[in-house]
Amino acid sequence: MATTTLLAVPTKRASEVNIVKPLRNLISSHYNSADNPEDYTEAINELSKLRNQALWKVLDKYDNSLELIYTYYDQITSLESKVPPSEVQIPFKWKDAFNKMTSFFANGKVSITLCSFAYERICVLFNIAAQQSAIAAAQNLETDDGLKMAAKFLQQSAGIFNTLKTTVMNVIQQDPTPDLNPDTLAMLSSLMLAQAQEVFIVKANIGDINQQANSYEEINRRITAENKCYFALIPLFKSKLLSRNTKLRLYKVLIRPIVLYACEAWASTKSDEKRLLLFERKILRRIYGPKRNEENTSERRTNAELRIIFNETNIVGILKSRWISWAGYVWRAECQIVHNITLWKPDKKHPRGRPRQRWSDRVRDDLKLMGIRDGERLAKNREVWRDKMKDQTIAKLCAQCEEYYAETAKMMERETVMMSLDKEWTSNVNIL
């Protein structure tokens, strides 16, 4: 899988400024409680310390580094609503985030200095969005948690840039630095949103289907996700208030689509299909429950009994039907990439042993079981292909799968019995 690299927005740089003295003078001249400076001096010092820490935290690329910036933003927002704008005598100077590229912008300013808490607030808000993009870019996109964190922070960053686009000019009321230009903010919002969508695509398509067409790890991950969904719904499956038909619908609508998502391109093996059937039978046994034997005691239902009671296409049958449906589209898509890929043949010497079957090999084998040997030719005509698929159901495929797995189980049972007999015979010989 190609490596996905996310772009991060650089943060704005602020100059150090003394906010303690101006705020102390402001409080002492406008409020009656200024007679006792000890009541507010400590709070002002804490605010100054918080600002310095928040400005340095933008260098960290961890999600907990945002907490201090959030806290400082809340304090500035609160001060902005309590202090008249004309009384603010604190020169807040912020440099352009793209200061190395300012020369590329027409009339680009390197920095702007304003005595305004509102200006300080929007600059801090810009840094929050930039910091979120940096944290998203630092995530490991090969893990589910990393993908979730990256998508979350990119969406939040896009929303902040979009909000700044409509509010920044009301605050600055002059030509802004290039990073705060509404057009730049709109571009940054679109970029963050596009990257969030890319992360969603990566999460949807991520898999361990390697160059040898091995879908083992991918199916393992799907079964794990399906297990999580199953155990989340286990109270419903155990409930006696729901009918069996309702529980079957829960399985077919909520659980089965998780494991079969994008299964059309799998080149699964008999072992993979057996694991899928094992999981499905586990859920069916939960839905139908045990049976009563002649002694009126509970007894586990056999696979054959489950197949008779369920009386619907099993999960492997659904998988193969999607293979065949997708194959019809691929064979009709001549001169397109998806069609040309299926025609590609390796130009290197393959290693010793039988090569792993490709997706097209599995599809043709399944069509042969249905009595169709010229599927690629039939698929050229969509109407004929549809009629053929209606006539040739996948029941035969399901029966073939069940017979194979039943025969495999019998062979394993016979081998186990033979091994136990060999051990018993060997021990008897040693005793003699």
TrEMBL record:
It comes from the Eukaryota. Residues 5-432 form the BRO1 domain. Pfam families: BRO1 (PF03097). GO terms for cellular component: endosome. One of its GO terms (biological process) is mitotic cytokinesis. SMART domains: BRO1. This is BRO1 domain-containing protein. It comes from Aphis glycines. InterPro entries: BRO1_dom, BRO1_sf.
